[in-house]
Amino acid sequence: MNFSSHIGRLTRSAVLAGFAATLLASAGFVGSASANDLDAVKAAGTLNVATEDDFHPFEFVEDGKPTGYDTELLALVTADAPFKVNQQIMPWAGILPGVTTGKYDMAVTAVLVTDERKTTLDFAGPVAESTTYYMTKVGNDAIKSASDLNGKTVGIQAGSAMLTQFKAFDEKLKADGGTGVKEIVEYQSYPEAYQDLAIGRTDAVINTQINLQAVANEKSDVFAVGEAVSDPVYIAWATAKGNEKLVEFMNGKLMEARKDGKMYELQKKWFGTTFESMPEAIK
């Protein structure tokens, strides 16, 4: 996948979402109600999941089909499940609200686990580890370390955990005697943020190291990944509070994928590394 096609998916998000909705409707998906827990999912015969449309390498659409780490891991752990999976592909902004209101049974996307999110969501076992970094344009000698973000304009996805983490980092910059960042520009989707960075509208983009490295690997002549601006956190699939049986079921399947090494094979394929020291469950 080249950079231009990665950027182009931003303008196709609405089309893809509509395409996915049509597929789900033909498969018997009804978006107005969702199963409450595993027993209801089994009774309905369907697990309705929401997946982000463009968050490479976790999930994205290529040649009209969903792919990426989360998509392949979902197919692996539900291969022999007592229900079918209906996958709704959509922009990030609608995923967690759709899960908390019961429209979808689970968010199968790169959800960073935070204390705030634990108040409204339950999480299956972690599927990856994440640390938030910054990325700049190649040759930007004005930013050589994280402290150099003082006085700079940075881009980040609206409503993301990375935004919350970076605001905390910005406060640390000020506490350490700096001015803090000049401006935080919020984007609905990361491709637009990367495009603005490439043409110089922003000085840096904040995202997980995994995602930034994937972009930098594709365009090593344009982007360079910098330093961490957060402590490590875990990424996990999320469901609404109270779905203990569904979480237990998914945890069991994810642990099977860890024990037989298949999860780590997918991590190596999509991230170039593995996270074998993750806890078994999110506390």
UniProtKB/TrEMBL annotation:
GO cellular component: membrane
Keyword annotations from UniProtKB, A to Z: Signal
UniProt keyword Manganese present: no
One term of GO molecular function: ligand-gated monoatomic ion channel activity
Residues covered by the Ionotropic glutamate receptor C-terminal domain: 46-273
The keyword Signal appears for this protein: yes
Domain of life where this protein originates: Bacteria
Residue span, Solute-binding protein family 3/N-terminal domain: 46-274
Signal sequence annotation: 1-35
Pfam annotation, one family: SBP_bac_3
Coiled-coil annotated spans: none
Protein name per Swiss-Prot or TrEMBL: Sulfate starvation-induced protein 7
Source species of the chain: Hartmannibacter diazotrophicus
Organismal lineage: Bacteria, Pseudomonadati, Pseudomonadota, Alphaproteobacteria, Hyphomicrobiales
Gene: fliY_2
